[in-house]
């Protein structure tokens, strides 16, 4: 697969209707209704608030692959990438033909439409669907669980977003993408099912690392008995987790979306060509792990109470009441020697000074000056001025 060629042509496959993270269920339904007859769309059931949860089937191959997105309503990157995938599969690209000839795809975009409506993680019952596999008190969890049981897919792609503060060990770069073959037991054993997922991920990393060097990590390998990925792995579906993290100045994840789309294609290519058995497990374990060594804002070498320190500032992102945007609240998260850290934005100059009080774990409420000129100003956690 020529990954560079596909990425360079991403705009020709990109679903233009989806321009930010805040699209709603009605937009998704409209797009599904526009798919050609080769894409069989059916309603699996309803969300708590009565919104349809839909399954798209395409391809005529023998390898069954199930992909699902937006179990968490505020994790929209995977859904955008899936609609880019729908467009790609309608093209005359050789890889598109190969995937449809070799695989039978089952795709569930937006498993949690009620959460997406208000841009929150949980469903309308305030349940985290991805922690509801065992009890299945939510209708969304029951539908997803039953869907896998009916299809019995060979492979599964579990599509999520992670916090933008995850970084890649040894790079001090944001973990723009993270992969994982979830564990199926507490001992983190590796059986044939999990091994196959690991080998596919090794192929994916090999293809994507050239596009995103030092920006791809391995997600935390910890067994979660209530999660779908862990239990699908246990049930015999080789499950691949993809997480979209952060990328500089890409708040709406439109750049990350390109790489996410490429990651899905790389995985499908590995499966369709059956090249993953040629991989080595050591290449999976060689993927650098995620850690947290970055801040949203880092102010370096500033004097506070007569000592020189660095200040690490992060924001919490909350949806507005209409679920169509978010607001950010910045707080002081660390003070001291942060020389081992990086940030999305760094302020560092001998001429910097502060006007206001810095209080750890409190909302940012100060002014940063460069030679006496304000360059960054916070008021109760909100940025009110930032020099371009």
TrEMBL record:
Residues 14-271 form the Peptidase M14 domain. It comes from the Bacteria. It holds the Pfam family Peptidase_M14. The active site is at residue 243. Its cofactor is Zn(2+). Keywords: Hydrolase, Metalloprotease, Protease, Zinc. PANTHER family: PROTEASE FAMILY M14 CARBOXYPEPTIDASE A,B, SLL0236 PROTEIN. Belongs to the peptidase M14 family. This is Succinylglutamate desuccinylase/aspartoacylase family protein.
């Amino acid at each position: 697969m020529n990954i560079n060629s596909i990425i360079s042509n991403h705009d020709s496959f990109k679903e233009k209707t989806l321009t930010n993270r805040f699209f709603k269920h009605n937009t998704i339904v409209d797009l599904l209704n526009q798919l050609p007859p080769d894409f069989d769309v059916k309603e699996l059931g309803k969300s708590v608030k009565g919104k349809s949860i839909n399954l798209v089937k395409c391809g005529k191959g023998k390898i069954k692959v199930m992909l699902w997105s937006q179990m968490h309503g505020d994790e929209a990157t995977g859904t955008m990438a899936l609609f880019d995938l729908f467009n790609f599969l309608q093209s005359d690209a050789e890889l598109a033909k190969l995937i449809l000839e070799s695989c039978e795809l089952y795709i569930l975009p937006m498993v949690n439409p009620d959460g997406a409506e208000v841009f929150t993680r949980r469903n309308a019952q305030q349940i985290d669907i991805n922690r509801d596999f065992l009890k299945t008190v939510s209708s969304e969890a029951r539908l997803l669980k039953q869907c896998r049981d009916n299809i019995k897919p060979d492979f599964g792609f579990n599509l999520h977003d992670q916090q933008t503060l995850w970084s890649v060990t040894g790079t001090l770069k944001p973990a723009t993408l993270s992969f994982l073959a979830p564990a199926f037991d507490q001992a983190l054993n590796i059986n044939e099912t999990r091994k196959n997922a690991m080998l596919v991920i090794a192929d994916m990393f090999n293809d994507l690392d050239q596009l995103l060097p030092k920006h791809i990590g391995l997600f935390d390998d910890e067994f979660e008995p209530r999660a779908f990925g862990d239990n699908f792995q246990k049930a015999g579906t080789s499950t691949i987790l993809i997480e979209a993290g952060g990328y500089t100045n890409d708040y709406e994840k439109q750049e990350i979306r390109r790489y996410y789309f490429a990651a899905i294609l790389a995985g499908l290519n590995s499966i369709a060509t059956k090249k993953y058995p040629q991989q080595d497990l050591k290449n999976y374990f060689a993927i650098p792990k995620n850690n947290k060594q970055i801040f949203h804002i880092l102010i370096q070498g500033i004097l506070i109470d007569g000592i020189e320190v660095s200040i690490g500032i992060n924001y919490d992102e909350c949806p507005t009441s209409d679920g169509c945007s978010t607001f950010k609240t910045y707080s002081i998260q660390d003070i001291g020697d942060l020389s081992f850290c990086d940030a999305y934005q760094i302020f560092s100059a001998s001429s910097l000074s502060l006007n206001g009080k810095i209080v750890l774990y409190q909302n940012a409420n100060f002014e940063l000056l460069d030679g006496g000129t304000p360059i960054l100003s916070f008021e109760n956690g909100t940025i009110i001025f930032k020099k371009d």
